[in-house]
C-alpha cells in the first residue's frame, strides 16, 4: 500500500496513468489463474441442493481471487477512516488521501461508492473525497446523475463505456460488485444546455445474480441496491438482456418498489428500458405487443408494490413516473457478431448506443423538473438515502436534510408572502376604519345616517372580499412560480404543493372573516359614538349658550370683574348646568355573553343545564376543579381505567388540561379588553372557538363528556362576562357626555375670560386644537402602524433567523430552554405551549427594542411622517382663503377633509376650538404651525422616557407578538405518544410530523402495569416490535409499527439510531424525578448511558434533528 500511495502521490500524470494501467494488467493476469476452475466448481455446486455453506465458501474464494485497483482504493478508504478514529498524529499522516482519490476521479477513474463485499458506504471517506473534488473544481460541481441497473452479466458496464468512452472494469475477474462512480466533465459547449458541470455515471453490480440466488438475504440486498442508486439518479437505465426475457419480471419488481419509494420522497427520475442482444434491426416495430405486455406487467407489479408500501392511490406505473412505452424502450443488438472471442464487433451496437446517448442528452437538456445539485447536496442526499435504506424507513417516513431544507426554504417564502398579504389588508383596514370614523353625521337625521353607515359597511365588506381574493390569487401565483423555478430541490416537496395551496386558501378565509368582524365592530363603535356624540352635542350647545349669557351678564355689570371673580361666576354656572346632564345607558353584557354560550350549544339538548342560571358573573370566581363526573361513563375506556386504578390520574390530567385552556382563554379575554373599544359579540365567539378547538384536539386523550364542556365554558364565560362588562363600562366612561364636557371646561373658561377681556386668543386656540384634537389623532396614527413596524424590524434583527420559519424558531426555543436549565420553564412549555411562546416572543421584542432598535425611534419615524402630512394639509387647506375671521371655520373644515385618510379628528373638539373664534386665517395658521412644532418636540420628549414595553405591546391594535406567533406556529397538533407539537407549517396539511420527538415520559405516557413513565422514544418504538395501548385502542394492545391504524394523519419517522434524540434524553435524565412527581407516577427506568449525556451533546443532538449547521 505504501508503494501504491507513493505512485498516486506523483505529480506526473503520465507516470501515474502508466502505473495504474500496468497494475491492472498484472492483477488481471493473477486473477485468471484460479478464476476459471473456481467458477466451474461454483456452477456445479449451485445445481446440487446441499445447502448454502459450500456455495458461500466458493463465493468467498472467487472474491479472494478477484483483485483489482478498486480493492486498493477501498483499502485507502479503510486506512483513512481508521486513522480518523485513532490518534491525531495518525490522522494527520493520512489527511492527504482524499485529495489523491479526488485527483483520480478528475482523471476519469472509477471510485467505489458502495462496498459490494460489505454492502456498506464508507460515509466519511466518500464525503471527504467528494468534498475535496468540490474544492478542486472551484465549487463548480453541479451534477446530473445517470445510473445503469439490471441483471448480472447483461453488459451494463460495457453500455456505459461505449456510450461515454469511459473505463468501468469489464475484463477478467468477477462481475462488478457494489456501485462505482465516475465523473464525466461537461464541455463548455454543452454546459449551458445541460446546466451542469459534470455528468456522474453510476455503474452497479447485477441484480438477481444466479450464483447468489441461493444465498441468504440476496433479495434484500438487491432491493437496497436498487433503491439507493435509483434514489441518487436523475436518469436510470434499466438494462435487460435478450428480447422479452422472463428474467425481466424479477428486475421490474425490484425497480418498481424503488421508483415508488422515490416518488413518495419527491425524487422523480427519468427511466429508460434498454433491451440488449436483440437480433432484428426492426425489433422496436415488431415488439409493440411485447411492450404492451411489459406495461401491463409493470402496472400489475405497481399495484402489488403500492399495497406493500401502503399507497392505495397508486394503481398504474404511470402514477409513479412519466413513462411512454414507445419512447422509453430501446432495442440494442448484441456487441459481437457471432461467438467470442474470435467474433468481430457489431457496428450496429455502437450505432444503437449512440442513438440512445443522443436521446438521453436531449432529455437532460429539456428536463427542467429540478435544478442540478452541487456535490455537498448530493452528499447530504446520499447520506439520508443510505440511512433510510439501512433501516427500511421508506414507508411514510423518509425525511432528510435536503427535503427538510427545501421545505424550510419554501416556508420562509410563504411566511413572507403571508405577511405581505396581512400588511396589505391591515393598511386597507386602517383606511376603512377612518372612512367609518370620519363619516359626517347630521344630528337631526341620526336614523338616516345609521342606514347610510350600514350601506357603507356592506360596501366595505364587498371591497374586502375583492381585495382578499386578489391577495389570495397573487400568493397562489407566487407559489406556482416558485415551483416552476424548480431550484433549491423544490421537486422534493412536490407532494406538499396541494397542501400549500389549501393553506393559502384557508389563510385568506381567516383574514376575510377577521376583517368582517373588525368592520362589524367598527360600525357598532361608530353607532355607539353617534348616539353619545348626539347627547354630547346637545349638551355642548346648551353650555355654549350659558357661557354667552354669562358673558353678556358680566359685560352688563358696570363694575369690572377680576379673573378670580370671572372664574367663580363661570364655576357656579358650570356646576348648575353639568349636573343636569344624563349619562349613557349601560347594556347587560353578561346576558349577551350568556346568549352566545347558549347559541354554542344550540344543536344539543342541554336546556335543562342552563335553566337555573341567572347570571354568568357568579361563575369563574373560584378555581376550576375537574371531577369524576366529567369523564365519559358507560365506556370501555372508563371501566379499564377504574380496573387499573387510573381514575385519579385521569382527573389530574383533566385538571392540567382545564387550567391550560382557562389560562389561554383568560389571555385572549384580557388582550381584547385592553383595546379602546366597546364590547362586541365576536369577542365571546373567539373565546368559545378557542375552547372548542382545545376540546376537539384533546378529546381522544381525555374522553370528556358534555357535562365537562358545560362546566368549563360556564367557568370561562363567567370570567369573560365580568371582564367584558368592565370593558363596556370603561367605554361608556370615555364617551360619557358629562365627562367629555368636563374635559372642555378649561377651554370654555379661557374663551370666556378672553372674550370678556377682549384679548387676542389666536395662539391659545391653536394650542387647544393641537392638544385636544391633533394630539390624540397623532397618537392613534402612530399606534396603528407600530405593530407592523415592530414585526418588520424583528424579521431583520438579530432574531431574524429564528422567525424565518417554524423549524428555526422551534430550534431556538429548545436551545434556550436547555441553556436556562429551568424545570418550570420546561413544564410551561409542555403544558401551556402557546402562552409560553407568546411570552418568549414578547421578551425577544423587548430585548430588540432595548438594544438594536427603540420604541421611541419607531414612534418618531411615524411622528415625523404624520407631522409632514399635517403641515402639507395646512398649506393646502389655507389656499385660497380670504384673510378674515370667517375663513378660519372654512380652513378647519378643509384641513379635516385633507387629513381624513390619515387620521380621525374629533369634530366636537374642533367645534370647541371654533367657539367664538375671532382671529384671521393667516394668523391662525401661523400659530398652528408653531403649536404643531411644539407638540412634535413635546411628544419626542415623552417617547424618550422609559415605559413598560410589554404592557405597551398588548395595548397596540395590531399586536406584534400575535403576528410573529402566526409566522412560527404550526397546526398545534401533538404527537399522540410524546405530545411533541407538529412542525409542519400552516394548519392545512395531510401529514403531521415533528423534527425531534421526545421520550414518551415527557408526554406523561406511562406503563399501565408498573405506573413507570415510559422512557423510549416513539421514533424508536415504531421501528420495533413493541405494542401500546390507550383509550384510542380501547386498552387493547396494538403494534407500534402499525400506529397509523389509529393515527393515520401522523408521520413518525422510524429511527433505530436515536442520534437526534440526545436532547430529550438529557432532559428526561435531568428532570426524571420531578416529572414523576408532577405526573404522580414512578420515575422512568432510563439507561445509564443517558445519564452521562452532557449539555453540549444534547445541543449537538438538537442541531442534528433540525439540520442546523454551524
Automatic annotation (TrEMBL):
Q: What's the name of the protein? A: VLIG-type G domain-containing protein
The UniProt entry, under Pfam families, shows:
URGCP_9th (PF25974), URGCP_GTPase (PF25683)
GO MF terms, alphabetically ordered: GTP binding
Q: Where is the VLIG-type G domain?
A: 140-383
Write down the species.
Answer: Oncorhynchus mykiss (Rainbow trout)
Query: Which residue ranges run through the membrane?
Result: none
- Domain of life per record: Eukaryota
> InterPro entries this protein is in?
G_VLIG_dom, GVIN1_dom, P-loop_NTPase, VLIG_GTPase
